[in-house]
Amino acid sequence: MASTYLYRTSGTPTSQKKGTFSFWVKRSGLSSTTRLFNNHVTSVYYGYIDFTGGDKLRVAGDDAGTISVQTNRLFRDTNAWYHIVIAIDTTQSTAADRVKVYVNGEQETSFATSTYPSQNDNLNFLSTSASNGHVIGAYYNGSAYSGGFDGLMSHIHFIDGTAYAPTAFGETDSTTGIWKIKSTVSVTYGNNGWFVLKDGNNLSGSTVQDQSGEGNNFTASGTLTSLKDCPDNVFATLNPLARRLTTNDPTYLNTNSSLQAQTGNGQNNNAIATLGDLSKGKYYFECKVQTVGNDFGVGISDTPIPSDGSLDGSHEIIYKNDGTKWNGSAYVSYGASYTTGDIIGCAFDVTAGTISFYKNGVSQGTAATDLASSLVYGYTPGGYTNHGVMHFNFGNGYFGTTAVSSAQNPTDGIGIFEYSPPTNYRAICTKSINAQEYS
């Protein structure tokens, strides 16, 4: 979403004292300031919610910084969907109750900064905005947009006139104990309230339709991408915190929540998925070569990958662009070479201990039959590149921002790939990993 954002101009608010923001968010890029929501009135009057360059959550703005609440907690898990609720009510007698921050149903109480509005303040944060003032996924300063959010967002609510608890939007699953989206949300949205990105894009042309019933639609700038990855079923992405070497970190480009990685000339390193420790089951993923560079490989590694580079490679199986494979100790002859534009499929069965690779849907044969015997922790998919660019599809159905052309599904129907996975091989997502049957 880094180059895509939503914007609208609001009208007269129901209240400038009370409001609620509720949204689910999955981060991609870290360590840079990215705006989640922005309400621009003038260059002095404003309000916003963002992640700071230090990966903290911040609620700030209004007339002279009347609100400045920033967590001590860091938000660096690029696999997790966070449910964030900001409840504002300046009528409260206790200052800390005037801006409450909740994450996954739990109230945050440890803050790096905690400046609250005065009691009964009318906040510009909740006021009528200037043209294009309500912005999701970017910052608007009155003439230009910046600070685009890098990641995914879903089920975004703004309530004008009421401060709600997170239980209005989420609930604990009685079986798993995991915080999840509430199937039925019953709230009063108010004049400027809205609910967007409920199911896919809800697009009509460039209009993102408000699902609250208030008719407060947004306009989309850029191209919204509707992915399979959602709070109810989390798909693997790439993890910028996990890498084989401490130098030459790959660049995780701003497309579809870290599914594209590149390195510079002479800069070799791994790109590793977030969902790892796969110790049983059958899984399939694809990697499309955008630039093959000097060196390129796709495969799996026993996890965790140490950041000091100490892994000796004995628990890695890699299919390299020159057609060789890494068998744990050396590169040996294996299959066809591949280059820019080719799609490499990887099917591995950790329970049986086998792994096979595919070039553009054609099997290159079994690459190993002893994965289980050498397993220490569990396998994580990924690859490595030197001066190359790789696009991964763990089942979301995209290479970068381009949808797969043939849309093939695995046996269980969860996920979309360019080529059909082998029978009973699954996409790498939480529903597949947590399934009870691994046939």
Would you give an account of this structure?
- The protein has 439 residues and is mainly β.
- The chain has two domains: 5-221, Sandwich (Jelly Rolls), CATH 2.60.120.200; 251-433, Sandwich (Jelly Rolls).
- 1% of the residues lie in helices and 39% in strands.
- The protein contains one helix and 35 strands.
- The protein has one helix at 430-433; strands spanning 5-8, 18-27, 34-40, 46-51, 56-61, 67-74, 82-89, 99-103, 106-107, 111-115, 134-136, 139-140, 145-146, 151-160, 170-172, 179-181, 194-196, 203-204, 207-208, 218-221, 251-252, 260-262, 268-272, 282-291, 295-302, 316-320, 324-326, 331-333, 343-349, 354-359, 362-368, 379-386, 389-393, 398-399, 402-403.
- The strands form seven sheets. Strands 10-6-5-4-3-11-1-20-19-18 form a ten-stranded antiparallel sheet, with no helix packed on it. A seven-stranded antiparallel sheet has the order 21-22-33-24-29-30-31, with no helix packed on it. Strands 9-8-7-2-14-17 form a six-stranded antiparallel sheet, with no helix packed on it.
- β8 and β9 (106-107) form a beta hairpin.
- The longest helix has 4 residues, at 430-433.
- It is elongated and about 75 Å long.
